[in-house]
TrEMBL record:
It is found in: Cytoplasm; Endomembrane system. This is HECA2 protein. It is a single-pass type I membrane protein. Pfam families: V-set. Keywords: Cytoplasm, Disulfide bond, Glycoprotein, Immunoglobulin domain, Membrane, Signal, Transmembrane, Transmembrane helix.
């Protein structure tokens, strides 16, 4: 990001993670942000916004010269971590999934600004599975079929894999999966 003022070139470099950051529901999440510039600064302002898909960005917190002004609604959840512009979310909930926008304004001989977006995904740990047998009495060897149903109560991006004696089971004449 380059901005020109009175013929002087001042660059403000803002570095954020380029990939989606995955956090775990109920745990803290750290959004790492670094910035540097080659201008004389009398004021450095940091602003954090949050946007869910299809909604307007909401103010989370801001600071001027490291004095933090939180949105009172979220003041216990979001923390700015000086000296850089990193944000801590604690605890993380499913409703925190979306884009976090950080904007830095450096005021000195003119103002230079830069902003970046960080995408956050919230993962829910998979609960212990329960297995139900139908018929519940079991079956006699070589007679009839048995159905095993595996159920998990909570979890994001759940995949199922059936094993027998530590080896993966594959579909065939004896096993069908649905």
């Amino acid at each position: 990001f380059f901005h020109f003022y009175a013929g002087i070139c001042s660059a403000l470099k803002l570095t954020v993670p380029s990939h989606t950051i995955h956090g775990i529901e109920g745990q803290p999440l750290h959004l790492s942000v670094d910035y540097n510039f080659n201008a004389t600064a009398s004021e450095i302002q940091i602003i954090w916004l949050f946007e869910r898909s299809q909604s307007n960005p909401k103010y989370v917190l801001g600071s001027v010269n490291q004095k933090v002004v939180p949105d009172l609604e979220y003041q216990d959840k979001f923390t700015l971590i000086p000296p850089n512009a990193s944000l801590r979310i604690n605890p993380l909930s499913l409703s925190d999934e979306g884009n976090y926008i950080v904007k830095i304004n450096v005021h000195g001989n003119g103002t230079i600004a830069a902003s970046q977006k960080i995408q956050v995904a919230v993962d829910v740990p998979v609960t212990k599975p329960t297995v139900h047998t139908e018929p519940s009495s079991g079956v006699v060897e070589y007679v009839g079929n048995i159905t095993l149903k595996c159920i998990v109560d909570r979890g994001t991006r759940v995949t199922y894999q059936w094993m027998k004696n530590g080896k993966r089971l594959h579909a065939g004449p004896n096993y069908t999966f649905s």
